[in-house]
């Protein structure tokens, strides 16, 4: 199944990532949940680095050889400098819009098993944060695909993106299937990713997204239990991929899954093969320390997806 392509014959961008720039402070903790104590001695330490959802998707698609461009609001601050440096060092094109409240930031508590707890600083958000419509339309018009992060400014960009002719994807992360904030994203995208973490009935939520919205494919990731793929009305289990090294951090695994899936989709692969690629990319991301920016390359992804992932439906 080939991905829908932009009506423009002059696509200059394979994947336009909208939203999701930010900075994390990584704190390695002895266990999660963390019992109350007056203090903890932390090893290997505390480190701040750029890398929110949009950054990781852009890194993943760029490393896989797709022409990638990132659009978001970024502050004139130290955290913004870290975001700009990440894109510059990785060679990822970045169009930044001033963010008056400062660059988005969070604290990630990371346990020994790689699980994490993220604490987001909402004090930097403003109700009137917007991405300029002219900029959104201009970039989308020359893009084959747009991946939209579920941040407030992106909500207002959805109509223009929908009108662009490019296919859309989004990641609803730990949506509970009820919170109305996520619905505009869920219903506008052609391809929807989400986590099963907060879902009482993942299949029902997936089918509801497909029935009410535009999505022809819905993917629900389930961590060590793999993922579920809903395509053409058929629900299939996606087995977890074997990580190529010890698991050290699950942060960014869902973003890597999305990047791997998008790579396959833009190559014209069917949803099953796209899901295999997503699983391989997600497993690779779990072996990368949170303090390092790294993603699986094209050759390794294609080889492992073909040889190491069991057929969908095998359990």
| CA-based gyration radius | 18 Å
**Strand tally:** 13
Structural class: alpha/beta
Helix content: 25-40%
Brief account:
The protein has 315 residues and is of the alpha/beta class. The protein has helices at 53-63, 78-90, 133-141, 152-163, 183-188, 202-212, 253-266, 271-285, 298-307, and strands at 13-18, 23-28, 46-50, 68-74, 93-98, 105-110, 116-120, 143-148, 167-171, 191-195, 217-221, 227-231, 234-238. The strands form two sheets. A nine-stranded mixed beta sheet has the order 5-4-1-8-9-10-11-12-13, with helices on both faces. A four-stranded mixed beta sheet has the order 3-2-6-7.
Give a verbal description of the structure.
This protein is of the alpha/beta class. It contains nine helices and 13 strands. It has helices at 53-63, 78-90, 133-141, 152-163, 183-188, 202-212, 253-266, 271-285, 298-307; strands spanning 13-18, 23-28, 46-50, 68-74, 93-98, 105-110, 116-120, 143-148, 167-171, 191-195, 217-221, 227-231, 234-238. A hairpin with a 5-residue loop joins strand 11 (217-221) and strand 12 (227-231). Helix 7 (253-266) runs antiparallel to helix 8 (271-285) and helix 8 (271-285) crosses helix 9. It starts with 12 loop residues before the first strand and ends in an 8-residue tail after the last helix. 47% of the residues are buried.
């Amino acid at each position: 199944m080939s991905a829908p392509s932009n009506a423009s014959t002059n696509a200059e961008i394979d994947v336009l990532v909208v939203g999701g720039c930010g900075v994390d402070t990584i704190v390695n903790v002895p266990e999660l949940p963390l019992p109350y104590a007056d203090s903890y001695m932390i090893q290997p330490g505390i480190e701040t680095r750029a890398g929110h959802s949009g950054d990781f998707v852009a890194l993943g698609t760029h490393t896989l050889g797709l022409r990638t461009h990132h659009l978001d609001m970024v502050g004139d601050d130290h955290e913004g400098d870290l975001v700009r440096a990440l894109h510059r060092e990785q060679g990822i094109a970045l169009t930044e819009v001033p963010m008056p409240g400062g660059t988005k930031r969070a604290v990630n508590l990371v346990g020994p098993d790689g699980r994490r707890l993220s604490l987001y600083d909402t004090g930097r958000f403003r109700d009137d944060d917007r991405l300029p419509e002219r900029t959104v339309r201009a970039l989308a018009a020359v893009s084959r695909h747009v991946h939209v992060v579920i941040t407030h400014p992106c909500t207002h960009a959805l109509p223009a993106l929908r009108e662009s002719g490019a296919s859309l994807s989004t990641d609803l992360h730990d949506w509970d299937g009820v919170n109305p904030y996520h619905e505009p994203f869920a219903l506008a995208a052609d391809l929807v990713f989400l986590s099963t973490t907060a879902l009482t009935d993942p299949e029902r939520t997936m089918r509801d997204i497909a029935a009410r919205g535009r999505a022809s494919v819905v993917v629900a990731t389930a961590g060590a239990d793999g993922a579920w793929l809903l395509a053409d009305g058929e629900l299939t289990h996606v087995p977890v991929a074997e990580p190529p090294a010890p698991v050290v951090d699950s942060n960014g695994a869902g973003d890597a899954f999305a990047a791997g899936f998008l790579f396959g989709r833009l190559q014209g692969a069917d949803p099953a093969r796209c899901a295999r690629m997503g699983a391989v990319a997600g497993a690779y991301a779990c072996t990368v320390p949170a303090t390092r920016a790294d993603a699986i390359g094209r050759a390794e992804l294609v080889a492992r997806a073909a040889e190491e992932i069991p057929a969908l439906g095998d359990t």
